[in-house]
Amino acid sequence: MPAVLLERSVVAVAGEDARVFLQGLVTCDMNKVAPGAPAFGALLSPQGKILFDFIVVEHAGRFLLDAPRALGADLLKRLGFYKLRAKVSLADLSSGEDGLCVVALPGAHAPAPASAIVYPDPRAAALGERAILPARDAAFARDAAAAYERVRIAAGVPLGGADFPYGDVFPHDVNMDLLNGVDFAKGCYVGQEVVSRMHHRGLLRRRVTPVAVEGAAAPATPILAGAAAIGALGATLGGEGLALVRLDRLQDALDSGAPLQAGAATVRARPFAHLRAG
């Protein structure tokens, strides 16, 4: 069922240097982005941590970033910082009467309006399609946010701000390497050296992993194995959720049989193979 994603905004990057400009900044390979072939990527700090993540969509000679609304102004500011003399224009297309919005289209759904730019979600096949369209044309997608959230959690796809904090995680921590979010064969981009070293040397310490949750606990609630903190809970819905955990501490807890608690809620780790990238 279509669901308007109120937490998303649309940032446009246009101009004759747009592709080259983004190629030197983001984790995905912009040379593989084409109309109908979007990419999932991120803009990192020089230390390799995620500042912004987004889906890049090419349409009508420009690139549209399907990005977190709460970070829209900061994303524009950061892109402007790197712009220098590049022939690039930047704009937030989400405000005003003609503002654009993002709609999730998982599974079977009614046809989107003719004004919609429809594209496959590049992170996981289970998430189906998405659309960018004028907010005035989004009436066909209502009251399905909870249903989409259930699909997202079941697919093991983390959401920034809900399942992890921006500025404090590496792409591998939040499964971007499993969800088509990092191209390890492309050239340099901001933070690339750190990400490449983590990948090739196996320095991974944390992952977002599916969990079962009995009871109620808010996102960011610490998960404890006895007195030892192993991570933090992310979003939960209907007894299923995601959690950002230290892999070694989780394994120690599983080996010892120590129960996992997040506040008053009991947590059980799901097999990591539950993730479905593609």
Note the main attributes of this structure.
Elongation Factor Tu (Ef-tu), domain 3; 15 strands; 278 residues; 2 domains; 5-stranded antiparallel beta sheet; 6-stranded antiparallel β-barrel; 5 helices; alpha+beta; Alpha-Beta Plaits; disordered C terminus
Q: What is the topology?
A:
Blueprint: E1 3-4, E2 8-14, H1 18-23, E3 39-44, E4 50-59, E5 62-68, H2 72-83, E6 89-92, E7 100-105, E8 117-120, E9 129-134, H3 145-154, H4 192-201, E10 206-214, E11 222-225, E12 228-237, E13 240-246, H5 247-256, E14 260-262, E15 265-269
Antiparallel strand pairs: 1-7, 2-5, 2-6, 3-4, 4-5, 7-9, 8-9, 10-13, 10-15, 11-12, 11-14, 12-13, 14-15
Describe the structure.
The structure is a single chain. It is built from 5 helices and 15 strands. The protein has 2 domains: 3-142, Aminomethyltransferase beta-barrel domains (Alpha-Beta Plaits); 171-274, Elongation Factor Tu (Ef-tu), domain 3, CATH 2.40.30.160. The two termini are 21 Å apart. The strands form 3 sheets. A 6-stranded antiparallel β-barrel has the order 10-13-12-11-14-15. The longest helix has 12 residues, at 72-83. The protein is 17% helix and 32% strand. It is of the alpha+beta class and 278 residues long.
What's the short version?
This protein has helices at residues 18-23, 72-83, 145-154, 192-201, 247-256; strands at residues 3-4, 8-14, 39-44, 50-59, 62-68, 89-92, 100-105, 117-120, 129-134, 206-214, 222-225, 228-237, 240-246, 260-262, 265-269. The chain has five helices and 15 strands. A hairpin with a 2-residue loop joins strand 12 and strand 13 (240-246).
